[in-house]
């Protein structure tokens, strides 16, 4: 999909605040409401906008630890990967997962209430996942940039 300047302005405005009314959004990009609505609908239908969600504070919800967990698999079959990935989708403490290149196969972002509860989670949940060979964890000291704003290309 080719994005023009107005589409890009709509995307940037929505990433900044997805709760804007259509009238507010239209005003920000200097369009009337109907054309703005049609453009947003088109961006949704073409998969450029894949959804809307609130950004929650882990700390306010009692999660004091963010861990980045590198997983090495002992099997690289499609079935093992599918089984592993399907299981990950069922675990709410895993807030992000990437299949990566390099020494490890997956990188997980995990939230936990504290170090003790993360240790319990690692032993009772992560180590029991299908085909897991090795687990290495690193912990975030502080979040420097939390917003997942995707750059809109020129």
Structural notes for this entry:
There is one protein chain. The chain has 154 residues and is α+β, with helices and mostly antiparallel strands. The chain has helices at 5-16, 22-28, 33-45, 78-89, 115-124, and strands at residues 65-73, 94-99, 106-112, 132-139. It folds into 2 domains: 5-45, Arc Repressor Mutant, subunit A; 65-139, Lrp/AsnC effector binding domain/regulation of amino acid metabolism (RAM) domain (Alpha-Beta Plaits, 2-Layer Sandwich). The protein has a 4-stranded antiparallel beta sheet with strand order 2-3-1-4. A hairpin with a 6-residue loop joins strand 2 and strand 3. Helix 2 packs across helix 3 (33-45). The chain is elongated, with a radius of gyration of 20 Å. The two termini are 14 Å apart.
Question: Descriptors for this entry?
Answer:
single chain, 154 residues, alpha+beta, Arc Repressor Mutant, subunit A, Alpha-Beta Plaits, 5 helices, 35% helix
Number of helices: 5
CATH topology term of the largest domain: Alpha-Beta Plaits
Radius of gyration: 20 Å
What fraction of residues sit in β-strands?
Answer: 15-25%
Work out the count of structural domains. 2
What is the structural class?
Answer: alpha+beta
Helix content percent band: 25-40%
Q: Give the helices and strands as they follow along the chain.
A: HHHEHEEHE
Contiguous low-pLDDT stretches (5 residues minimum) are: none
CATH superfamily of the largest domain: Lrp/AsnC effector binding domain/regulation of amino acid metabolism (RAM) domain
Let me know the largest β-sheet: 4 strands, antiparallel
Distance between the termini: 14 Å
Assembly status: single chain
Using DSSP, what is the number of strands?
4
For the residues shown, what is the average pLDDT? Answer: 95
Q: Largest sheet, order of strands side by side?
A: 2-3-1-4
Write down the overall geometry. elongated
CATH architecture of the largest domain: 2-Layer Sandwich
- The CATH class of the largest domain is identified as Alpha Beta
